[in-house]
Design brief:
Strand content: 25-35%
Largest sheet: 6 strands, mixed
Shape: globular
Helix content: 10-25%
Radius of gyration: 18 Å
Order of helices and strands: HEHEHEHEEEEEEHEHEEEE
């Protein structure tokens, strides 16, 4: 549930934000105008059993205000973002609250500092990696950088938070880029060893591998896809999640029952939004 239900102050803040943008222009680091955004709304609830994963694409031209609007349309309890700059996530979170009435906590799993990715200065570049937004508080956050990231540093993060009224460990990862199968296999092995420690877990992320890829075999041995029809076998039927018509994005579940899932195409990234509603009872 959204923690702060004091609708008046939040509504006022959203209205003032929109007025300021009209009067003095955008202040977001990517120069995003709010003209196309939805108007400020009163506080609303998230869907308490819904989780989402989204590679928000970097570098891409889409504004943070548009990305926030895409997330708000589905109001998940937990969101795992990949290719996320800390600065962009800060703005996305701000827009979710002030324009859409959705308040989230945030934890970062940055494993790279890169000026070309996230701005800043050459001597103080922005942080880049994963992030988790959760409507409920998060505890015990960890960030692990894989021993070999491949062509770019990669890692996973994990937090404990609440989904469907139950405490659960949530992981978020981004495996090595395509055509680096051996690197991804070792990354998946490291990740699987940690996931195996939990009887109940949610694993979100961009795995850069199709379901039948050998490097994902260790993950499939521990968990199932939120789509019951999606399996690594030839008989599996998996919805694609990228502009190049491959399934690279997953909501893997361990000890959790999926209720429904949706893939939402978007013009703001080369990856689609994927969310799932879950039963943790």
């Amino acid at each position: 549930m959204v923690l702060d239900r004091r609708r008046g102050p939040r509504l006022l803040a959203g209205v003032m934000l929109a007025i300021c943008v009209v009067l003095v222009g955008p202040s977001a680091p990517d120069g995003a105008l709010l003209a196309g955004a939805q108007p400020a709304v009163a506080a609303r609830d998230v869907v308490p059993n819904r989780v989402m994963t989204w590679n928000i694409c970097n570098p891409c031209e889409a504004s943070d205000v548009d990305k926030a609007a895409e997330i708000a349309a589905y109001a998940p309890q937990v969101i795992g973002l990949q290719e996320a700059c800390v600065r962009d996530v800060e703005w996305i979170r701000e827009y979710l609250e002030n324009l859409h009435g959705l308040a989230y906590h945030v934890e970062y799993g940055s494993v790279l500092r890169k000026w070309g990715r996230c701005g800043g200065t050459p001597w103080s570049p922005g942080a880049f990696g994963q992030a988790i937004l959760s409507a409920a508080p998060m505890t015990d956050p960890v960030t692990v950088e894989y021993p070999d990231g491949g062509s770019e540093d990669r890692g996973y993060m994990a937090v404990t938070t609440t989904v469907d009224g139950r405490s659960v460990r949530v992981f978020n990862t981004h495996l090595a880029q395509r055509r680096q199968e051996a690197v991804r296999a070792e990354q998946a092995r490291v990740l699987a060893a940690e996931v195996a420690r939990h009887d109940r877990a949610i694993l979100l992320g961009d795995f850069n591998a199709v379901p039948e890829a050998p490097e994902l075999s260790g993950i499939w041995a521990l968990a199932t896809d939120a789509d019951p029809q999606c399996r690594p076998a030839p008989t599996g039927s998996c919805r694609t999640t990228t502009d190049w018509q491959s399934k690279f994005d997953y909501v893997f579940l361990r000890g959790i029952v999926p209720l429904r899932h949706r893939v939402h195409p978007t013009s703001y990234s080369d990856h689609d939004l994927l969310h799932a509603d879950l039963d943790l009872s």
